[in-house]
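User: Please fill in residues for this 248-position structure.
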């Protein structure tokens, strides 16, 4: 476990030391929260859907965790380019411990980023319905972070250059976000879009956050938790397999 802890701590320290990255990563969530939250609020209320800021805040938190988690895979590519990954892989330790340490480190930094954005949401006027819901929301935030940090590990172990990673961001991560229902309700959608949103892992994460924070769940909290837990196990297993075949 010392290897897992050391690599986890490395990821956390690297995040804490990069203050510019922490502040810059707040830009996009704040845009969605403030511009859409206050801009579309009157439209949302006239449609009888309630307070849009309350609705969109869990989606913005989920988006933040998604992006931060996936970008942990980019760190794997940088380590490969600068030789740190090679030094790690030749160490006399199981590769699965290296993968778990890196993945948990990426998930922890994503969770920290999501918590920071949640704090900004609270300042802007977002209010969870009770303290127990806040604790349950933290559990869903952690599950989202693990699922997509493991996915980031799979991507980072499969690709060999940053150009390929940017393509993944454009053609995989953005659709995951926009199809998750982070910005709009999942009810009364066209049939094709309904099927697509049900195939999106983030849909269950955002829905779980809404159910926990504001007691509005489309799929049900039990379904959200079960699917995210299964996906976390599957992606961790696939990440371990991809990492075991990694060549530098």
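Assistant: Residues filled in for all 248 positions:
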């Amino acid at each position: 476990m010392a290897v897992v802890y050391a690599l986890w701590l490395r990821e956390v320290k690297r995040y804490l030391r990069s203050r510019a990255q922490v502040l810059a990563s707040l830009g996009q969530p704040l845009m969605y929260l403030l511009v859409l939250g206050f801009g579309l609020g009157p439209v949302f209320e006239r449609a009888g859907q309630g307070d849009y800021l309350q609705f969109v805040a869990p989606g913005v938190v989920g988006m933040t965790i998604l992006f931060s988690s996936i970008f942990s895979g980019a760190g794997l590519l940088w380590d490969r380019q600068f030789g740190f990954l090679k030094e790690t892989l030749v160490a006399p330790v199981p590769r699965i411990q290296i993968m778990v340490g890196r993945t948990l480190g990426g998930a922890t930094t994503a969770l920290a980023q999501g918590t920071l954005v949640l704090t900004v949401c609270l300042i802007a006027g977002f209010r969870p319905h009770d303290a127990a819901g806040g604790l349950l929301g933290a559990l869903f935030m952690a599950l989202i972070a693990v699922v997509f940090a493991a996915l980031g590990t799979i991507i980072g172990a499969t690709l060999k250059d940053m150009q390929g990673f940017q393509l993944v961001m454009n053609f995989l991560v953005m659709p995951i976000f926009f199809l998750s229902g982070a910005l709009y309700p999942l009810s009364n959608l066209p049939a094709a879009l309904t099927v697509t949103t049900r195939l999106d892992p983030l849909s269950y994460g955002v829905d779980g956050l809404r159910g926990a924070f504001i007691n509005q769940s489309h799929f049900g909290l039990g379904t959200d938790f079960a699917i995210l837990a299964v996906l976390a196990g599957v992606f961790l297993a696939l990440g371990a397999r991809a990492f075991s075949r990694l060549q530098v």
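For context: The chain is about 80% helix and 0% strand.
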